[in-house]
Amino acid sequence: MVVNLIIYSLVLLVSMLIYFKVAKHFDVVDYPVNRSSHNQPTIRGGGIIFPIAVVLWFILSGWKEPLAVTGLLIISIISFVDDVKSLPYTIRIIFHFIAIALLFNGILPVIYWYWIAAALILTVGWINAFNFMDGINGITAFYSLTLLGSFSLLNNAKELLSPIFKNSFPEKWESFLPSGLVGILFISVMIFAVFNVRKRAVTFAGDVGSISMAFLQSWMMISLMIATKQAYWILFFAVYGIDATITILIRIMRNENILKPHRLHLYQLLANEKRWPHLKVSALYALLQLFINLLTIFLYFTELLNLPVFIIINSVLISLYVIARSRIVQPS
Known about the structure:
Blueprint: H1 2-25, E1 29-30, E2 42-43, H2 49-60, H3 66-84, H4 89-107, H5 113-132, H6 139-155, H7 157-160, H8 181-196, H9 206-228, H10 238-253, H11 266-273, H12 278-301, H13 307-329
Antiparallel strand pairs: 1-2
């Protein structure tokens, strides 16, 4: 087991270093502009290591989940092309829907229109939210590690959590994700973090990283919801989801084009206007989401997670968000 982990890590590390050489040669680099939260040229697309990790898992697992992996490759390739040369939104969205259709065909057990509609809203919304939030050093790495750790904990809940929740642990609980997938993804994010979680990042995730990771997280979330017949797990996406949604609403009220880049997310205001260190902001987001995830898991396994509790948690989070944002943007 340890030997396998070392081999996986070395393969992914070498893949990342090779990509750096290729990216520099073809000038796949982010240069600072007025809206940027960085001030030096940085390699774009380092998140390509995430789909590479899944392909490695796919080969070693005996070709499991071919439709979902094919969807991941499609959405990763079109996102990487967009990193290299900006593509029209209509072209990108067509490929996104093709990828999502393959994912759904692979993981949705029964085709009901309302299941498809709900899963589509969740996936498209999360892909866009996660992509919007990729803007400062460490935020994609920290947040991804938080989510992957949470999904891994639940995927192995029978071994890890049943001793803690002896009286209320579900008797029929089963793993909802294929073995090894989350683990190798966790390794890939750790390697990415080595080059991104710095005061001066060597690389950014790029669209290929943020969109592929959001696609994978949507896969995990939908699988968890299907396995538990429970939608309240959406709280795992709360911190990014609230920031992205409220920021979009603010931009709509200002008659701004929500598809154009900006610096209005709360994390951007903290990093740019308040001059907080990037890693401090990134850690704050991840730690808050980790607390929410652990609280959600506790409430679920103690049979306290219900609609009123779900509404209360979201109301508290939205209130805290609005207060924090108003204090940052208020006139001096």
